[in-house]
Design a protein that fits this description.
Layout: E1 19-20, H1 23-33, E2 40-44, H2 52-58, E3 61-66, H3 69-78, E4 84-88, E5 104-109, H4 115-124, E6 129-137, H5 138-144, H6 155-163, E7 164-172, E8 177-178, E9 185-192, H7 200-213, H8 221-224, H9 231-236, H10 250-266
Parallel strand pairs: 2-3, 2-5, 3-4, 5-6
Antiparallel strand pairs: 1-8, 6-9, 7-9
Helix pairs in contact: 7-10
């Protein structure tokens, strides 16, 4: 990302770098995030600093996580001060729960090649952040926010819905970036769910159950769950075994998990 005044950085393909350079889009992101003066903000992949310089004007403390050491050094030089902390690290390896004592606001332009793993890394640290405004490939954003029963509804939709309420705020055209990607992007707002599962063990079991259900989309639950859940247990959750995974809501999957765990405990 760039503010248009500094020497431009040569994008590195191995880092999936596409720098946002459209000032109108930058202002839209800042406006939609609604950063307050007493907020702590964590920015993932600040790049050339297009959002960084605006965030520094609005928040109390800004932590940026940047893998590219040249860009990390540049950010330290350009925005030196107590308000900014630059962490030179792969965001996938960062302990997002240890950054601050209080929940923070999360922003980022996620590289397309690791956007889904990064999302699940955010979900693993769901209690650490207050909300998130992230840029993703539009195709991923649509799957995250798809309606139950639609063709886009997928395992990603269910897992997203387990952790957060997600909404697409607006789309970003390819020409807003340098180099321009081949696809449209979307800004997605995430707010932690009010009804999460009780612990890591439950969440892992939920993930495995959803993965099994979507293993073959055209097959019924009874077929996909063979050896995992029999028809009687599926029906005990008030779900027809002849349904397919894409017709089940997050609540449906939670009921199936409860029945599965009760069945295992009673066996």
């Amino acid at each position: 990302m760039s503010d248009g005044t500094a020497t431009r950085h040569q994008p590195r393909r191995r880092f999936g770098q596409n720098f946002l350079r459209d000032q109108r889009i930058i202002q839209q992101i800042i406006s939609s995030a609604g950063i307050q003066p007493d907020d702590t903000v964590v920015e993932i992949g600040p790049g050339e600093g297009a959002l960084t310089r605006h965030l520094l004007l609005q928040c109390q403390r800004l932590i940026v996580i940047e893998l590219d050491r040249d860009l990390a050094a540049r950010l330290r030089r350009q925005y030196a001060g107590d308000q900014l902390e630059v962490i030179e690290q792969d965001a996938l390896q960062a302990d997002l729960s240890a950054l601050t004592a209080q929940p923070y606001r999360l922003l980022g332009n996620l590289p397309y090649n690791i956007s889904t793993p990064l999302l699940f890394h955010f979900f693993d640290h769901i209690g650490a952040w207050q909300d998130a405004h992230i840029m993703l490939q539009k195709e991923v954003a649509v799957r995250m926010t798809a309606a139950v029963g639609s063709s886009e509804y997928s395992r990603l939709t269910v897992m997203t819905g387990l952790y957060v309420d997600a909404e697409i705020v607006f789309d970003v055209p390819p020409e807003a970036f340098y180099p321009a990607p081949k696809v449209t992007s979307s800004i997605v707002r995430l707010r932690p769910s009010d009804n999460p599962l009780p612990g890591p063990g439950w969440r892992r079991s939920f993930s495995e159950l959803v993965k099994t259900a979507f293993a073959q989309r055209r097959k019924t639950l009874a077929n996909n769950f063979k050896g995992v859940l029999d028809r009687e247990l599926i029906e005990r959750a008030d779900i027809d075994p002849g349904r397919r995974a894409q017709t089940l809501s997050v609540s449906d999957f939670k009921r199936l998990l409860q029945i599965q765990r009760e069945g295992c405990a009673g066996s």
